[in-house]
Each structure stands twice: as structure tokens, then as C-alpha cells.
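Late entry, written up from scratch paper. The run itself happened at the end of the previous shift, but nothing got recorded in the book at the time, so transcribing now.
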Amino acid sequence: KSGRKINALSMNEKALFYDSILDPEVLDLRDQYPLLDRQRLRRYLENPGLRIPRSLVPTFDLVQTRINPNRPAGIGYLAINVSPVSELGVRVKRFDREERFCEALEWEWRIFTDRERVDQRSQTASEIVHRLKNLDVEDLRQPALDLAPSIRRHARPDRTLREVSQLVAKNRPDLSPQKILDLIAVAAIYGL
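Output as recorded:
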């Protein structure tokens, strides 16, 4: 969805990125998105020879462009701060600054912590993303759509991709295990 490689700085970020990639309402992802405060940066912007200190350009860990029928043109933005639960208390000023920035732009804002991370879901999402790299997704869309009811019947957050494919295969002996995995991956990105 981002059209480029995204490097996660923590396991929580990695989990959020993979979850975002498979969320059918997410259209685009931007990592390390800057919160530009032009007033604080004015001196540096007027003098290109000066280096802007990193501390003056904090970033969101992730900004999602999302389908939102309640917004103009049906598009909205969600800025996300990824923080361990253990650090929430010491980041209050940062959270306040981020929330004010988002309110000014009419963006949504939230925090993603290790409490929201589901490792099995992230592992499955990672496998799906890597599988999709070698597939002609459009050609597989209709077969994935046909298989979607069986996939939905067997998919659960605590099941691995392989477990789901084995359960689906019991009803579809005409499909190879690899083909079923491919169709599950395609179904996932289409939100089927």
C-alpha cells in the first residue's frame, strides 16, 4: 500500500504495519511522518545553510490514509503513535503535541501499544505480504472471491495461515496447498 519498503523500529511498529497493510480501509501508509511547526522552524527555513535539529521535527510513527465516508471525498487520515505501555506516562507532552497537531488538520489520532499487538495476526500478515510479492493478484481475484466463504469459516486470529489453508483444503481437494495459500493471501488484501 505504501509502494515502498517500510522499516519498523520495533516489534510493535512491525505489527501495526502488517495489520495496516491487510486492513481494506487503509489506502496508503506513511511512516515517520513529520509534525512540522513552521513557527519553530522559521529561522531554519529562512536560512537554508542551517541544519534543522532533529528535536524540532518530531514524527508520527505511522499515518494511514483511510476510507472514511464521513469526511470530504470519503478519505480521512489517522496518525498513530506506537509506544510501549511502560512508557505511556513519560510521553504525555509528546501525546498532547501530536493530538493538537491532528486536531488542527482534522485528522484522527491514536496510540498503538503492545497491548494491541497480536503476534499470530502479525505473523500471518507478514506471510501474506511476502506471498503476494510473487503473485498476479488481479488474475487470482475471482478464484479468491469464490473461496472466500470457506476462508472466512476457518480463519481465526489464533490460527496460522497454514492451519487455515489445511482446513480449507479438506473441502477443496482440487486445489494444491500452495494455490490455497495464494488465494487466502489475495482474499486478505481484498478484504473478502
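The longest helix spans residues 137-154.
(Scratch paper discarded after transcription.)
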